[in-house]
Write a structure and sequence with these properties.
The chain is of the alpha/beta class. The chain is built from two helices and 20 strands. The protein has a single domain (15-180), classed as Hexapeptide repeat proteins (UDP N-Acetylglucosamine Acyltransferase, domain 1).
């Protein structure tokens, strides 16, 4: 998948307009009031709230109440996927999770960064794609612009800075393929 970068020059003002900032305030208040306190079995309710704020959510999705989602309108979650406890989905740019994807507890998916070479450090967003049947284990960090291949398993606390191959076991800092995995 070709990553599309978006640069936003912060010398001309904030990275996001007033409408976006107000939408995020409304979103955070809604998640806090409607979902944050809910018991684990209420996944369908949390999926409904995500849909109300523009997320594309498949059937049988499990999103835990303590997950933090920055902008649900930039999020797509395929059928049977899960976002675990205390996971951070920093969706400044598009984040796409395929079918049967597991995002374990404490994982950080970050679709935004800054151009440190440019004055004002403008925001740069790049999409993240986690393809079908992939698992990102506890507390791993996935950088902007990364594609995690179909069936890939990313080890706990790994730092993913580049695309990872399908049907492989990957781990480390930076994460790299260690061995193949059977489909």
């Amino acid at each position: 998948m070709a990553s599309k970068s978006i640069n936003i020059d912060t010398r001309k003002g904030p990275s996001f307009g007033l409408g976006n900032r107000l939408a995020r305030i409304l979103w955070m208040a809604a998640w806090f009031c409607l979902c944050r306190w809910t018991p684990p079995p209420l996944h369908r309710w949390r999926a409904l709230v995500l849909r109300m704020f523009g997320a594309r959510v498949g059937s049988g999705v499990h999103v835990y109440a303590s997950a933090q989602i920055w902008a649900p309108w930039h999020l797509e979650i395929g059928d049977g996927s899960a976002i675990g406890r205390k996971a951070t989905v920093y969706s400044q740019g598009r984040i796409t999770l395929g079918r049967r994807v597991v995002i374990s507890q404490g994982v950080h998916l970050c679709a935004g960064t800054h151009d440190f070479e440019a004055p004002g450090f403008p925001l740069v967003t790049k999409p993240i794609e986690v393809q079908d049947d992939a698992w990102i284990a506890a507390e791993a960090f996935v950088h902007p612009g990364v594609t995690v291949g179909e069936g890939c398993v990313v080890g706990a606390r790994s730092v993913v800075v580049g695309d990872l191959p399908e049907w492989s076991v990957c781990s480390g800092f930076p994460a790299r393929a260690l061995r193949p995995r059977r489909p």
